[in-house]
Amino acid sequence: MAKSALDPHDGQKPSIVWSYFVLTRLHKFPAGSNLAFWPGAWGITLSAFRVGMTIEQALIQLGMYLLGCTLCHSAGCIWNDICDREFDRKVAVSLHGAVFLLAVLVALWMVTLSFAGHNGIKVGLFGFLSLVPWYPLMKRWTYWPQAFLGLAMTWALPTSWASINGFTDVSIPTVLLAGGISWTIYYDTIYACQDRGDDIQAGVKSTAVLFGSHMRSILCAFASGFVMALVYTGVATGASTAYFIVTVLMTALELAWQMYILDFTNEAQCWKVFKVSNM
């Protein structure tokens, strides 16, 4: 199982400032934050064409969602570390310090959410309160923590959609949300393959453990689900031919290539494919 960010990595005592910075995962930015941001960007981009947003308005929205998703991701990582303290005993920061930093980040996130309008605030708060606190516990309760993670990481999509469009034409964000969950299960299962052996020994549940020898065929199904969601979105929004070539076809070819070449027992290759698949 991968070590928590609360653990010192090099055997030397890090500075307290650096320890707290690492706790937020901001030293790896945009990794992680981008996975939460992209679904929000999908919602904003789709909505921009529907409501006639100017480029400036769309860019401001994208900037706010990038900030909000970064804060939310950092808060989620800290909460995950706090919940994992029984697994990871060596810590570089105090529990009280971690909780205080978590509270600060959540407060800042709520400030950014306040700009999302009445509908966006309701959807965003519902997702945050019902998903983020429970994800770290899912790997103890179910073999499908990646599905729960998919909901959490894709929730910026319904938030951004509701913020701009209200609750109209909800089939578009709903189907794309399902596609985003499929995409998350796909890439996070590949990521989890790096620790599959350790997870089995530690009794940690994941789709990487569950899928076993059927890994490739099951991940192909989830990749296909993501591509089908992209197709539906394009048809429902009357997208141009360029969308179907660049977004749908190129995505399908990339995922197919990954499934063809990937050795799930090769940790370095799994890490490389994981990075490519969530760019």
Automatic annotation (TrEMBL):
Gene Ontology CC, one term: mitochondrial inner membrane
Transmembrane domains' residue ranges: 59-79, 91-111, 147-164, 170-187, 218-235, 241-262
Keyword ATP-binding attributed: no
Listed GO biological process terms: ubiquinone biosynthetic process
UniProt membrane topology term: Multi-pass membrane protein
Keyword Membrane appears in the UniProt entry: yes
Molecular-function GO term, any one: 4-hydroxybenzoate polyprenyltransferase activity
Main location (coarse class): membrane
Compartments, record wording: Membrane
Keywords: Membrane, Transferase, Transmembrane, Transmembrane helix
Cleavable signal peptide: none
Cofactor requirements of the protein: Mg(2+)
Pfam family, one: UbiA
Gene3D superfamilies assigned: UbiA prenyltransferase
Family: Belongs to the UbiA prenyltransferase family.
Protein's name in the database: Uncharacterized protein
Annotated source species: Phlebiopsis gigantea (strain 11061_1 CR5-6)
